[in-house]
Design a protein that fits this description.
With 153 residues, the chain is an alpha+beta fold. It is 18% helix and 49% strand. A hairpin with a 2-residue loop joins strand 3 (58-68) and strand 4.
Length: 153
């Protein structure tokens, strides 16, 4: 008799625990400690590359490289360096505004995805050619090609 009471009690407790778990919202995906993104688009004489390092959901460093014919562009930024100033957006997690030597950049990070948008970056300073860089580069984890908008304009 006592064994039957314990079995019924355990069964009731198990059913209640399963029902409680079913009503809980699913947990969001856990943020990895370190994520590295890398992409390359185009042939050697007309290409763009982006490398981004994210630590605990916060972008720490980026390196952008593009080549159009003989013109080569290289922009690198790391938190705390002497050439860039980083400001995190308090309202939106994963978003940062970066003040470059000339112009600015905006980084948006979501789990598995980074978008880097340049605004009014003087090509002479970073690329050795006339004009301004106004465009965006996107990199998605496990995807080797970059998404480009206006980088070569």
């Amino acid at each position: 008799m006592r064994g039957m009471t314990i079995a019924v009690g355990l069964l009731a407790w198990t059913v209640a625990a399963v029902a409680a778990d079913a009503t809980k919202p699913p947990k969001p995906p856990k943020m990895p400690l370190l994520e590295r993104f890398s992409c390359r688009t185009g042939p050697n004489d007309h290409q763009a590359r982006l490398i981004v390092e994210v630590v605990k959901g916060r972008v720490m460093e980026f390196a952008f490289y593009s080549r159009l014919g003989t013109g080569v562009c290289s922009i690198h930024g790391r938190r705390g360096d002497a050439y860039t100033k980083w400001e995190d957006d308090a309202a939106v997690a994963g978003k940062a505004a970066i003040k470059l030597l000339t112009g600015s950049a905006e980084l948006e990070y979501k789990l598995g995805h980074v978008k880097l948008k340049f605004t009014d970056v003087d090509r002479m300073r970073y690329c050795g050619m006339d004009g301004e860089l106004n465009g965006a580069v996107e990199v998605i984890s496990k995807k080797p090609e970059c998404g480009l908008v206006g980088v070569f304009d």
